[in-house]
């Protein structure tokens, strides 16, 4: 069965809303390499969108999963819980940048965000939430409301929940300063809703889908100050940035800020569906018994995978390796930028979250989504999985597994360069 045949079959049974970036049907994955149904090999610079930080089919993760499924795969944590979930929770709590926290397990990132908002509202008795332009928090109704990017996440799906307010995310490169953003928040308190009715401010320390923009130094601390002044909870969404991706275990550690609640998913379980909300005990204990959970919340299989993935992150030094990987990629992209400053406007990285922003005529305000799309498509044909992002669709993001071997990384970067040069006429 070829990729083409499978794509045709997929088109018959899946609606276009659940499309695929590339017509590549994966048959096998080992660390940073994938093989498709046609037998073609790819280097994976996407890691399933920052999920397989420990690589595809890491032997320790696979062994832990096999051992767990041989015992039992599901009982429901709210009916008859199990040790592997407790062990994992204890381990996450050790790592969380919050003092004496508790946590809940859920299954997806969107669910973690939904629950963080539920918990914040229950703990404060307030309705309002402030989120940021360009932010992405998931595809459920509350998460769509929080998301600050219309296409393709919001068009046609309203109405969204009330009491959500958006502020600009400070992005120096686009002329939006920290002061602009803070003034806007202050203005929300003046013209839309009083600060004492805001339950939470939710922020990604590095915007993911929005374009890989890192919160400037001091910004999270300013939000912490605003929150403390008005009794608002600070929720840090680390679903894309967590588990070593940005060169610290959680990205908010770079900012020396203690959030009240933190959401995690993706890299947590090395490729198995698991998410969590961790938060200060007095906040986490506010919802009534039975108010939080889900049938598959904290699947024992995912918990076993996560425990193994956390061990791999520690044993293989993946947190510091993220910086080495990210700097290697950024350096290569900067070399290309020097040659093509009119097309590559900006290269940035937070650890191994690397992005380059493609523009036209050297103009920051002239995004180049066409070249971005072509890069993703052509790189795929050349054997490299690349992802794009950005509110203007003009950012290429690189999210390799943190276990990627140096020679594979270099091979992937060579394909990147070759693809870029072939598209821009060299
Ligand atoms: C920052 C952030 N929050 C929430 C989500 C939603 O996670 P999920 O797709 O697992 O629901 C994502 C997914 O990309 C994300 O990057």
Keywords:
alpha/beta; Aspartate Aminotransferase, domain 2; five-stranded antiparallel sheet; Aspartate Aminotransferase, domain 1; 13 helices; seven-stranded mixed sheet; 426 residues; 2 domains; binds pyridoxal-5'-phosphate; 16 strands
Q: Short summary of the structure?
A:
The chain has 426 residues and is of the alpha/beta class.
Write the layout of secondary structure elements.
Layout: H1 3-13, E1 26-30, E2 33-36, E3 41-44, H2 47-50, H3 59-71, H4 83-95, E4 101-106, H5 109-124, E5 128-132, H6 141-146, E6 164-167, H7 178-191, E7 198-203, H8 219-230, E8 233-237, E9 261-264, E10 275-280, H9 281-284, H10 300-315, H11 318-339, E11 344-350, E12 353-360, E13 363-367, H12 369-381, E14 384-385, E15 387-389, E16 395-398, H13 406-424
Parallel strand pairs: 3-14, 5-6, 5-7, 7-8, 8-9
Antiparallel strand pairs: 1-2, 2-3, 4-10, 9-10, 11-12, 12-13, 12-16, 15-16
Helix pairs in contact: 3-10, 4-10, 11-13, 12-13
Bound molecules: pyridoxal-5'-phosphate (PLP).
Pyridoxal-5'-phosphate is lined by residues 49, 108-110, 113, 136-138, 204, 208-209, 237, 239-240, 265.
């Amino acid at each position: 069965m070829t990729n083409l045949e499978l794509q045709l079959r997929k088109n018959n049974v899946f609606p276009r809303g659940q499309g695929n970036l590339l017509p590549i049907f994966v048959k096998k994955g080992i660390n940073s390499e994938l093989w498709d149904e046609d037998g073609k090999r790819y280097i994976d610079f996407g890691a399933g969108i920052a999920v397989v930080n420990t690589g595809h089919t890491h032997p320790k993760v696979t062994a832990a999963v096999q051992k767990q499924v041989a015992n039992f795969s599901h009982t429901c944590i709210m009916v008859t819980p199990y040790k592997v979930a407790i062990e994992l929770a204890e381990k996450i709590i050790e790592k969380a940048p919050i003092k004496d926290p508790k946590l809940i397990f859920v299954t997806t990132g969107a669910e973690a965000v939904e629950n963080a908002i539920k918990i914040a509202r229950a703990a404060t008795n307030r309705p309002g939430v402030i989120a940021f332009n360009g932010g992405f928090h998931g595809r459920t109704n509350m998460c769509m409301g929080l998301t600050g990017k219309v296409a393709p996440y919001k068009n046609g799906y309203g109405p969204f929940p009330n009491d959500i307010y958006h502020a600009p995310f400070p992005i120096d490169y686009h002329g939006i300063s920290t002061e602009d953003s803070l003034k806007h928040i202050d203005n929300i308190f003046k013209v839309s809703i009083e600060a004492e009715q805001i339950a939470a401010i939710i922020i990604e320390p590095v915007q993911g889908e929005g374009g890989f923009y890192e919160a400037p130094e001091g910004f999270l601390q300013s939000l912490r100050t605003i929150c403390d002044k008005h009794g608002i909870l600070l929720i840090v969404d680390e679903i894309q940035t967590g588990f070593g991706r940005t060169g610290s275990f959680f990205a908010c550690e770079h900012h020396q800020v203690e959030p009240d609640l933190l959401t995690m998913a993706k890299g947590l379980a090395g490729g198995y569906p698991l998410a969590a909300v961790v938060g200060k005990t007095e906040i986490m204990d506010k919802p009534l018994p039975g108010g939080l959970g889900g049938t598959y919340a904290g699947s024992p299989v995912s918990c076993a995978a996560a425990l193994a993935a956390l061990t791999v992150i520690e044993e293989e030094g993946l947190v510091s390796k993220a910086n080495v990987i990210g700097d290697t990629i950024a350096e290569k992209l900067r070399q290309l930028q020097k040659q093509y400053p009119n097309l590559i406007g900006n290269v940035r990285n937070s650890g191994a979250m690397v992005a380059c922003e493609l523009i036209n005529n050297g103009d920051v305000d002239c995004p180049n989504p066409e070249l971005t799309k072509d890069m993703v498509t052509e790189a795929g044909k050349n054997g490299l999985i690349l992802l794009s992002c950005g509110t203007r669709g003009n950012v290429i993001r690189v999210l390799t597994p943190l276990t990627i071997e140096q020679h594979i990384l270099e091979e992937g970067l060579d394909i990147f360069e070759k693809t870029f040069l072939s598209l821009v006429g060299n």
